[in-house]
TrEMBL record:
InterPro entries: NAGPA (IPR018711). It comes from Paenibacillus zeirhizosphaerae. The keyword Ubl conjugation does not apply. It comes from the Bacteria. One of its GO terms (molecular function) is hydrolase activity, acting on glycosyl bonds. This is Phosphodiester glycosidase family protein.
Length: 356
C-alpha cells in the first residue's frame, strides 16, 4: 500500500463532500429576501396567512431542514473520512513493515553464519558490523557493510598526487573516514608507487583504460552503490557498468555464487599469506575479510582456496582478492584492527574507505 493511495482516498472524500458544501454556501450566501408582504402583516389584515405567505414559510422550513440534514451529512462524512484515514495509515505502516521483512530475514540468515558481531557502527548512511574469523587454519576479521547511501564508500588515491602512497590509517584520518581497507595492487618506479593497471576515481580513469591481461581483475563500486568487478577487455565493457571508483588486483574468487578456478600461479605462490578479500551478498551488502599472517613467505595466513571456500559458505555472490601480504590492513575508528605482517602499516596507493 503506497502513500499515493491515501491521497487518492482523500480526493474521493473531497469530491463526495463538494455538492453538500456547495448547497450550503448557496443557502447561506445567495438567499435573498422574498419581496412579499410579511406574514405577520397579512395575518393582521386578513386574520389568516395568505397562500403566498404559507408557501414562503413552507419553503423556508424545507430549506432549514435541508440545511440541517446537509450539516449532519457533512459531520458524518468528516468522521468517516477521519476513521478511514486512520485505517489507511495503519495499512501503510503494516505494508511497509511487511515489505522490509524479507530483507530482515535474509540479513538474519547471513549474520547467523558469521556469529555475533563484537563491534557495530550504525548511522543514516552506513551500518558496519565486525566479526572475528578463526576457523583454525588462520585468524582474521570480517567486516559486513550495508551502504544506505552509495557515497558512504569511496576510494582514495595516495595523497592526491601521482605516484604518492599512504597507509590505510593515514588515509582514514586524513579524509575523516570511519573505516578503511587496502585496495588494489601497485608497481614501484623511480621511488614512487603507482596503482596497478586500470584505476577509476570519481568516475574517471586516472591513467586511461587498460584491457585485462593475464589474471588481473578490476573491482569497485558503481553509481548505485553496487560492487562490480571482473575482467574487461574493452573500455565500453567497463563503462556499461558505470564505475564510480575501482582498482585492480588478482584473482576472482566467486562469480554469481559459483567458485572460479584460481590460477595455479596465485594459488601456490605464496601458498599462505595475509589476505584482504571483498565480496557482496544478494542484497548488495558487502563483506570484507582481512587475514593476519606474520610474514609473506607462504607459511602463515590463509590460502586463496580457504578464503574462496569461506566466502562461498557465507553466501557471497561475487568475491575478489585485493592486495595482500604486508599491504593487508583493516582500520576502524582510527584503530588498526589486524596485525600487519611488516610489523607496521605499509603505504599503498589505493584504499577503500567508509564514512558515517
Amino acid at each position: 500500500m503506497k502513500v499515493i493511495e491515501v491521497k487518492q482516498m482523500n480526493r474521493f472524500f473531497m469530491m463526495a463532500l463538494a455538492p453538500f458544501i456547495g448547497l450550503l454556501l448557496c443557502l447561506l450566501l445567495f438567499n435573498r429576501p422574498v419581496p412579499v408582504t410579511s406574514p405577520a402583516a397579512d395575518y393582521a389584515s386578513n386574520g389568516s396567512l395568505t397562500a403566498e405567505s404559507k408557501s414562503v414559510l413552507q419553503k423556508l422550513n424545507e430549506a432549514e431542514m435541508l440545511a440541517e440534514s446537509t450539516l449532519s451529512t457533512i459531520h458524518k462524512t468528516a468522521e468517516l473520512y477521519k476513521q478511514t484515514t486512520h485505517v489507511m495509515s495503519g495499512i501503510v505502516k503494516t505494508a511497509a513493515a511487511q515489505s522490509a521483512r524479507p530483507g530482515t530475514l535474509y540479513n538474519h540468515r547471513i549474520t547467523v553464519r558469521l556469529g555475533t558481531p563484537y563491534q557495530t557502527i550504525d548511522s543514516d548512511r552506513i551500518t558496519i558490523e565486525l566479526y572475528k574469523v578463526n576457523p583454525g587454519a588462520y585468524r582474521g576479521y570480517a567486516m559486513k557493510v550495508k551502504l544506505k547511501d552509495p557515497s558512504a564508500m569511496q576510494m582514495s588515491l595516495g595523497s592526491g598526487q601521482p605516484g604518492s602512497s599512504e597507509t590505510t590509517l593515514r588515509a582514514v584520518q586524513r579524509t575523516g573516514a570511519v573505516a578503511g581497507i587496502n585496495a588494489g595492487g601497485f608497481a614501484d618506479s623511480g621511488g614512487k608507487r603507482y596503482p596497478l593497471s586500470t584505476t577509476v576515481l570519481g568516475g574517471k580513469y586516472t591513467n586511461g583504460f587498460q584491457p585485462s591481461y593475464k589474471d588481473l581483475t578490476f573491482v569497485g563500486l558503481n553509481e548505485n552503490g553496487k560492487l562490480i568487478g571482473g575482467k574487461f577487455f574493452s573500455k565500453s565493457m567497463l563503462d556499461n557498468l558505470k564505475p564510480i571508483f575501482g582498482a585492480t588486483f588478482v584473482p576472482i574468487l566467486l562469480q554469481n555464487g559459483q567458485k572460479v578456478t584460481i590460477p595455479s600461479k596465485w594459488r601456490d605462490s605464496p601458498k599462505r599469506a595475509p589476505r584482504t578479500v571483498i565480496g557482496n551478498y544478494k542484497d548488495d551488502q558487502l563483506l570484507v575479510i582481512v587475514v593476519d599472517g606474520y610474514n609473506e613467505s607462504g607459511s602463515s595466513g590463509a590460502t586463496l582456496q580457504e578464503l574462496q571456500n569461506k566466502m562461498y559458505a557465507l553466501g557471497i555472490q561475487d568475491a575478489y582478492n585485493l592486495d595482500g601480504g604486508g599491504s593487508s590492513s583493516l582500520i576502524v575508528n582510527s584503530r588498526v584492527v589486524n596485525k600487519p605482517s611488516d610489523g607496521s602499516l605499509r603505504p599503498v596507493p589505493t584504499h577503500f574507505l567508509f564514512y558515517k
